[in-house]
Queue: 3 jobs
Job 1
Amino acid sequence: MSVAIGFADRDVVQYSRSFPGGRLRRDTVVIERPLKIEVNESSYTLLRTPGADRELCVGFLFTEGLIEKLGDILILRQCPDSADSLTVKVSDTREKPSRSMLITSSCGLCGREDIEAMVDALGRVESSLQVSPEMMYRLPETVRARQELFDLTGGAHASAFFDEDGNILGVKEDVGRHNALDKLIGQAIMQELPMNSSGVFLSGRTSLEMIVKAARARIPVVAAVGAPTEIAAEAAERLGITLCGFLRDQRLSVYTHGWRIRENV
């Protein structure tokens, strides 16, 4: 039985848990709360870990095709009565997005033809970025050292940008792996950080949704601790993205566009 005893901070909550033998331990549990985003006449609700909400909002609007650049956002403000609500006004002079809230692991698109049309509309990612396997092997440990929320809870995903030398350009955590990536992309957009010359490291698996987000941001390399799905690998191949999985324990599986993984000579 778990009994709530209060909040540790905005990101976690403390629980007291009983174990066999009558022992008690205070456990820290990651928080998941809805964030409501009002965009012009539309409303979206994301389940996320509070924190970096503006970055999450910007990244979400961008990867969903609701904005093309930061300048498309005319107003972004937090509701004075709720920390879990944002009001956004975006320019209405742009073309309609090719997709919006259609790709999720729970519902997906209506059919394969719709998915193929959406992928084709994104266009291929062109980048000369190349990285070495030796550098890639270091990424899990390097990023893991900066996963503070995971250290506290064991319940948070991470996304991180890295350059060709393995320098970490940013790390974001969230209970949702797609949110962590949106937070990271949103931060890059707000700070004008390069994405086309960077790779992204994911702490979980790679689904089609993650590849779509990477393609929107023109990220050429996606490397994940876990496995990709079949359709994610197919999309990465068509979009020109180098997709790597099982990046752990000094091993690496390369599924698409392996020319970006160069061997040291």
Job 2
Amino acid sequence: MPKIAFLSSTAPEALQAKATLEALYPSVAPHDAEILIALGGDGFMLETMHTSLDSHIPIYGIHCGSVGFLMNELSPHDLISRLEHAKASPLYPLEMIVHQNGQGTTKALAFNEVSLLRETRQAAKIQIDIDGVTRLQELVCDGILVSTPAGSTAYNLSAHGPILPLGSPLLAMTPISAFRPRRWKGALLPETAHVTFTVLEPHKRPVSAVADFTEIRDVTTVSISQCKGHSVTLLFDHDHHLEERILREQFLE
């Protein structure tokens, strides 16, 4: 039996599931574990991914929350068999490097997406450069995001961005309520792309940048690139793995 650590959100159903599983299976402290069991929703899974970054301990999520795209179904009595047959999916985050108005530079990682959002009633104006080449001189919008394949079914999908198959060497760039150019729907980028967003008129039209849980306000430039130096591994039931979920999501009405 692998050494298992059970982690849960504060949701009552997650706490109850944790108590049930700990009564059925021996557990260890997280730093001694060979597998982490995350009980909650996708938000708690993201928290667990960030806190266990580079621990090289795979994470098996069990859905006990409101959204469970990154989670497996709760089935307490066959957990070990499911772990033995689980499929591993390594995920690499985006690194966001932010410059603020006279406040220096900040870095943060995002497994779902990096998004820029207007802070006031006025639309943001953003210049888009990819690998040092200006591709869009001025985007007038509520915001813009760059998504990983794993995050493409989250905020990116809500903003009408494309769903990316897991493992595809692509990133999705999706505008949020673009005003001009009105018909620009975004772009698919190679995973090696280095993206720079420059906020135009930052004092008049302030913009915040968000990488998963990290929000930085009043930014002037934001650089985004995939970070192969960090990774986490998620485990999914063999008949319900993440690639299948992403594929199925594209055929939902």
Job 3
Amino acid sequence: MSILSSRFLNIRAEFKRILPAQPCVLCGCMSHDGLWCAACDAAMPYFDSPHCPVCALPTHNGETCGHCLTHPPLFSRTTALFGYTFPLDKLIQGMKYGEQLALAHAFAKKLVQRIDKSNLPDYVIAMPLHPAKLRERGFNQSLLLAATIARELKLKLLPNACRRVRDTPPQSALPWKERKKNVRNAFCCDRDLTGKRVALVDDVLTTGASVNALAGAVSERGAIQISAWVVARTLPHSH
């Protein structure tokens, strides 16, 4: 390590030390490292295991899984930050149902670090909520995530390009086999996306039915390369 690099790290460490600490959202200890402390960050379920590049389900050597080969979804790549297990699942629930909206910013900043900067899309689109659900919740956590990601990567956010036109039951309340039917024709896209590359942002990818339905809507409007960017991927052992 050069002298300049060493000096920079020392200055950075000193700067962090003098910043106001805040209680870690997981353990309660005072943290200079953001919403959760460095010790809790080390225990977070970062999604680092080999996985299918399309749907992000685990595969032996990171090859495309059999289901994506035989029944490819309408999105071509998934970037996931975490596996949807404890304690990340509790943080997601706190963001969505406990109005801990600062978590959306923290998740998005970390997800940006995982995104392939060599193949960025033209537009970023958040998973839309039905107006009734938006009125009930008061915010769309996926739009909060997408806004931070777009800002960090200097990409164009399209907050109103897509709409949820059917007020469907929550996917989490349904058996896996019924989720695809639940979101069929649930979305529409009002913007011409001919020849454009699009990233769809959501908090959790489980079966992929919602993202695939939204991908269908943007594909019908001409999008040619559709990626999914999600905070967490539900893994087989956590079905």
